[in-house]
Write a structure and sequence with these properties.
The chain is an alpha/beta fold. 32% of the residues lie in helices and 22% in strands.
């Protein structure tokens, strides 16, 4: 009987591997069910295929052993927020107090310094690898972390560390916050945020760069015998991650300790000609946004916090060279030209990538093209001429959100320990416990913090109607911009977690036709986060 069970487990594992490898490879055909009856029939057939994959995957996830054996993952009903969760403020105070004063600090640190990254133990991120992880062959610029700290002198300090990397799971965010626990209490830090820029050309800090087949074969076997986690096949180097935790925590401390008073401005510029949206509906935010902190001390550098939603794929999706992509050259050019210390944050990027049409270079060299693009984007930021001064009023709040994971392939990846997500068991399924947040500056500009790559239409409106929907359903929620009710709403994406693509529930296509659906952890993450944001705003305003 035991031998039969082992054979069944082996067969199930092989089937799951085939699904994991075959689905991404097949996502090529574009089908619009609103175009014709035949297209609608084709879309329906794809949806049936998706259902088959879902149910087969669900059975396999129930039978293939993973890290959730025994009590390693708690039940959802028993879940309690970890000490490392920063909820921020419970209500927003819009008063401009006499003693209020903006202050800000900045820091940068390399994540590569002091490490032998060519020893073969570091995998590259960006794409799924079947048998062997990709190792770096060359360093083009750097993989680092940029940090800003900001306070109005009344509410406390909010910090955000922006990593060069493909993605960063919430479990790893908690590791950094735990290292900062005492420092945060001593300095009245009310919000600690860790985000990534989603470069495909960086050492893996998420876990998706693991050799997939060895992981899915070996890790279940190790789970059965209760082996130590350091024996598991993973995509992340333990040495690299421990160094990262310490470096990021140290950079946060530096930014906070270097804070000084000044004036904060906000402005934006149209950069839509530099962006290309590959997915309908075309509703992306075409602006490049900038918060500019002008310190009172004339000898100190300005601090810029810039945001635009653009994928960083200057070296391709499966690069073997290390580069922070165009944000590196954006920050470098701005620093060399203006002296400003720049933090660049990823926005609502979904299927939005770089458009080099207006970049003055015909070179095919990836470095030349990427550098040129970053410099053109930096020049856009330098051209901003519509700045408004923001009153010294800072409000920030966060809420935990439970999202049902119905992408069975990604569920397996998490269950086998490749991604350090915060997971709970919910009946026969699983929930990712993630975070959504909101920050307001000067009672004028709002920022929604999103734990993944969100469809812009969820933020600013324009979700497809039932007539163009794959599910023939409507989207019955207000946009987050409407819910926030602020003059300008920005999105800081891939913040405090990477739960993949976040789509409107009624605009979920087939994973056999779209890349976004393959990397979406849930078909209901769009509504779950939208409803959580509505609840969050209702609680504080």
């Amino acid at each position: 009987m035991k031998k039969a069970k082992k054979i069944i487990a082996l067969v199930l594992t092989i089937v799951m591997i085939m699904l994991t490898v075959a689905v991404p490879a097949s996502a090529a055909s574009k089908v619009d069910p609103s175009e014709s009856t035949s297209a609608k029939i084709e879309a329906t057939l794809y949806q049936i295929l998706d259902k088959l994959v879902f149910y087969l995957g669900k059975v396999l996830n129930m039978l293939i052993p993973g890290l959730n054996l025994g009590s390693r993952w708690q039940n959802f009903d028993d879940y309690q927020s970890p000490d490392g969760f920063y909820a921020g403020e419970t209500s927003f105070d819009t008063t401009v107090y006499d003693n209020a004063q903006w202050s800000a600090g900045y820091a940068y640190a390399s994540l590569l310094e002091g490490l032998d990254i060519f020893d073969g133990s570091y995998y590259m991120a960006g794409t799924l690898e079947v048998m062997e992880g990709r190792v770096p062959t060359k360093v083009i610029d750097d993989q680092g972390v940029s940090v800003y700290a900001v306070s109005d002198g009344v509410s406390g300090i909010a910090v955000q560390a922006v990593l060069d990397g493909y993605g960063f799971a919430r479990g790893d965010v908690l590791q950094i916050r735990n290292r900062l626990k005492d420092f945060a209490a001593e300095n009245n830090i009310i919000s600690i945020n860790i985000s990534v820029l989603h470069q495909h050309s960086c050492i893996d800090i998420l876990g998706m760069g693991a050799p997939l087949v060895p992981a899915i074969f070996k890790n279940p076997a190790l789970s059965l015998i209760g082996a130590d986690l350091d024996q598991y096949v993973g995509g992340k180097s333990v040495q690299f991650m421990n160094n990262l935790y310490d470096v990021v925590a140290g950079a946060v401390m530096t930014a906070v300790n270097d804070m000084e008073t000044g004036t904060l401005y906000y402005g934006s510029v149209d950069a839509s000609e530099l962006m290309y949206d590959k997915r309908q509906p075309i509703t992306f935010d075409g602006e490049l946004h900038r918060f500019r902190f002008d310190p009172d001390n004339e000898e100190s550098n300005e601090i810029w916090l810039c945001e635009a939603g653009i994928h960083c794929v200057g070296f391709g999706a499966g690069a073997d060279v290390i580069s922070a992509d165009f944000p590196y050259y954006f920050k470098q050019y701005a620093k060399e030209t203006t002296g400003a210390d720049v933090v660049y944050v990823q926005g609502a990027e979904l299927a939005i990538t770089t458009d080099h049409t207006y970049v003055n270079t015909d070179s095919s060299d990836d470095v030349v093209r990427t550098k040129a693009y970053g410099e053109v984007l930096a020049k856009k930021a330098m051209s901003i001429d519509n700045e408004v001064e923001l009153d010294p009023v800072l409000n920030v709040t966060f809420k935990e959100v439970a999202i049902e994971t119905d992408n069975q392939i990604l569920t397996l990846v998490v269950r086998e320990g490749l991604i350090n997500s915060v997971i709970t068991k919910a009946g026969l399924g699983y929930n990712i416990i993630t975070e959504i947040g909101y920050m307001e500056l000067g009672n004028k500009v709002g920022v929604v913090f999103i734990p993944g790559e969100i469809a812009p239409e969820l933020i600013w409106g324009g979700v497809v109607g039932a007539d163009k929907s794959w599910t023939n359903d409507t989207w019955d929620y207000a946009s987050m911009a409407e819910t926030a009710g602020v003059e300008k709403l920005l999105c800081f994406g891939l913040n405090n977690d990477q739960i993949g693509y976040i789509l409107a529930d009624n605009d979920i296509h087939s994973m056999f036709t779209e890349n976004e659906e393959i990397n979406a952890s849930s078909t209901t993450s769009g509504s779950a986060l939208t409803k959580a944001f509505e609840a969050l705003i209702a609680e504080v305003k």
